[in-house]
Amino acid sequence: RRKLVEVRDLKMHFPINTGILRRHTGNIKAVDGLSFDIYEGETLGIVGESGCGKSTCGRAVLRLYDITSGTIKIDGVEIGGKSQSALRKMRPIMQMVFQDPQACLNPRMTVAAIIGEPLDEHTDWSKAKKLERIYELMDAVGLNRSFANRYPHAFSGGQRQRIGIARALALNPKFIICDEPIAALDVSIQAQVVNLLEELQDRLGLTYMFISHDLSMVRHIADRVAVMYLGKIVELAPRDALYADPLHPYTQALLSAVPDPDPSVEARVQRIILKGDVPSPSNPPKGCNFCTRCPKVMDICHQIDPEYRELAPGHFAACHLYNDAGQTGAPRTERNQ
Ligand code: SF4
Ligand code: MG
After folding, report:
1. Three-state SS for 19?
2. DSSP calls for 184-239
3. How far, in Å, are 47, 125, 183, 243, 335 from residue 270 at the CA level?
4. 251 alpha carbon to ligand 2 midpoint, in Å?
5. Rounded Cα distance, 92 and 47, in Å
C-alpha cells in the first residue's frame, strides 16, 4: 500500500507566559513526538479524551500551525518546515472538516459562495464553470441545488455539515481530516453524515484522518486506530486488533467503558475505572505519561518513558509491560488486572 501521509516525531509545544514580566515559564506539550503513517484510501481514527492533543495533531498535520519540530510528508512532499506561502500550492490536496459547521460558515455568505470560496482562491475559472462545480458538489453531498442562494442559518446542523463537506471537496483533495465531524449533531443524523463520508471516500478515493472521542463510531469507520493520551500516541493498531486485543493499559481502560457488540466479549470485560485526573500537558509526569493513573504501574514506569514499538505486525504501543525492562511482560490476553 502507498503511504499518503508520513509523520515523524511531530511536536507542537505552546509557550506559556505568565506573571507581570511575561517571562517564558515553560511549554504546553500539546503534541509530543507523534509518528504514524496513513495509507492511501484508508481511514486512520485518532481517539482519546478531550485535551489529549488529537485536535492539535490534526491541525498540525495540515500545517494550520507552525510546528515545533518533526517532519510531515504528504503525497511525497515534506511540508513540516514550509512557510505558509509555500504551503499554498499544497492546500488543495489536504482539507479539513470541522466539528462545528456553524462556527466556520460565514453567516453573510450564501451556500454557493461558501462552497465556491476555495475555487475563488485557487482557480481562475469563469463564473459559469465555478457554478457548475458548486452544483456538482451540492449533488455529491445531497444538498438540493435550490439552496444555493440561501444563507447558512436557514439550515439544520446536518445540512450545515454537508455544506462544510462540499466546501472541503471543492478542490478535489486527496486527504481530509475530519475533526469530530458529528459530535455537534443530533444522534439521529450522525449516522447520515458518517454514511455520506464513507460513500464519498469510496467514490472519490479519499484518505481520512478521523478524530473522535467516540470509540464506537471510530470502530465503525476506521481501518486503523491510534489512541492518544497526554500528547502522545500510546497505541496504534488495525481496528479489529485494537478493539479485540488492546495492549496498552490506557486503551484497555477506555475500551472497557464501551459496550461491545459481541456479548461474549462484553461478559469477559470488566469496567476499569481510572483514578485521578489527566496531568497537565505543561507538566507531564516523569517516565511514562500514564504512570500516575495506570492500574499496572511498575517502578520503572516512574523513571523511564517507554519506547513506542511495533509489538505485532502493525500493532504499536508504548508500555514497559511489553519491553524486556518491564519484568516478564503480561500475557496478551489478560485484559484486566
Ligand atoms: Fe502503565 Fe507502566 Fe505501561 Fe505506562 S509503562 S502504561 S505506567 S505499565
Ligand atoms: Mg478536540
Report:
1. coil
2. TS-HHHHHHHHHHHHHHHHHHT-EEEEEES-HHHHHHH-SEEEEEETTEEEEEEEH
3. 21, 59, 27, 14, 9
4. 18
5. 26
- Which tens digit of pLDDT belongs to each residue from 176-192? 999 999 988 988 899 99
Domain edges within the chain:
3-322
Q: What contacts 253, CB < 8 A, 6 or more positions away?
A: 272, 273, 274, 295
Q: How far apart are CA 67 and CA 9, in angstroms?
A: 11
294 C-beta closer than 6 A to ligand 1: yes
Nearest CA to ligand 1 atom 5: 319
Query: Which protein residue has the closest C-alpha to ligand 1 atom 3?
Result: 319
Distance, in Å, from the CA atom of 87 to the CA atom of 72, rounded to the nearest integer, reads: 12
Task: Note the pLDDT tens digit of each residue in 144-176.
Answer: 999 999 999 889 999 999 999 999 999 999 999
Instruction: Assess whether the C-beta atom of 231 lies below 6 angstroms from ligand 1.
Output: no
Q: How far is the CA of 53 from the centre of ligand 2 (A)?
A: 7
Closest C-alpha to ligand 1, atom 6? 319
CB within 8 Å of 100: residues ≥ 6 apart: 184
Determine which residue's CA is closest to atom 8 belonging to ligand 1: 297
Q: Are 297 and 256 in contact (CB under 8 A)?
A: no
User: Fold for domain 3-322?
Assistant: Rossmann fold (3.40.50)
Regarding an ipTM greater than 0.90, the answer is yes
| Torsion 106-107-108-111 (CA) sign | positive
Q: How far is the CA of 295 from the centre of ligand 1 (A)?
A: 8
- Ligand 2 (ion): residues with CB under 5 Å are 55
Cα-to-centroid distance, 208 and ligand 2 (Å): 16
Q: Is 170 in the pocket of ligand 1 (CB under 6 A)?
A: no
Distance CA 173, CA 96 (A): 10
**Quick one: angle between helices 111-122 and 157-169, nearest 10?**
20
Indicate if ligand 1 lies below 6 Å from the C-beta of 227: no
